[in-house]
Each structure stands twice: as C-alpha cells, then as structure tokens.
Specification:
Distance between the termini: 25 Å
Low-confidence stretches: 1-5
Strand order of the largest sheet: 1-3-2-8-7-6-5-4
Order of helices and strands: EHEEHEEEEEH
Oligomer: single chain
Length: 134
Amino acid sequence: MNFVAQGLSIGTEAFDRLKNSTGEFPNCGLIDKDRIGFHTPIFRLKHDEIQGVRRALLEPFPSVFTINGEPYTSQEKVPRHHLWANISKPNGRGTIYILGLDDNLESIFIVYDEREFDPRVFERVLKIQEDMFR
C-alpha cells in the first residue's frame, strides 16, 4: 500500500493511527481533499467519483455514486458522515463502508468488502474514528 502523509488535512498523528488500523481491511483507501492519501489496488477513484462520495455523505438518503466505475446505492447513514452502500448492479456483490473523518469532509476513509453488509465490519470502521481522535 502506498502511503502519502505529507500535506494531509487530518494531521500526522491521526494519519498514523489510521494507517495502523488498515491491516484488518485489505481493500481500503483515504481521500484527502482532492487526492488519494493512500489506497489498495482496488481503489482507482477519479476526481468526479471523489466528489460523488462526498455528495453521498451530504445528500438526503438514498443516493447513488460510483467507485471505480461501479454504481453503489447508499443503504444507511449512521450517524452523520458515515454510511454503507451496496453495489447497484443485478446479482452484484460487495459493500462499501464510508467514514467522514472531519466536519467539512476533506478526509474520507473507504473500505470495500466483497461480501454483503456485515454490521460487525461497519462497527469496526466506525471505531477507527474513535481511535484516531482519542
């Protein structure tokens, strides 16, 4: 995984905590401002997809956005700036978990899981924010 810490809006200490927690998520990425702070090979987001993820966190539920060209439909927002979404294709499998790391959504952490929604995975994703800012 390629990590780029310089110039991130979340700060070095929070970034290090986030980086240390990525081991349990083999497919994840960090969006910071309009660039990718780090990513696993599964994430190749374009600028318009980054903006679509931000809109999905702000728009009324449900919303549709794309990641790597695949459409996802948000399923639940709990609490503000956190959501999970299922792939929107027939017979498609996979869940995206999205965690906004600051109030203005400059930093967003994304986890992809090939399986259907699992509340335990979502809880672990939400716990990352708690661990980062304790």
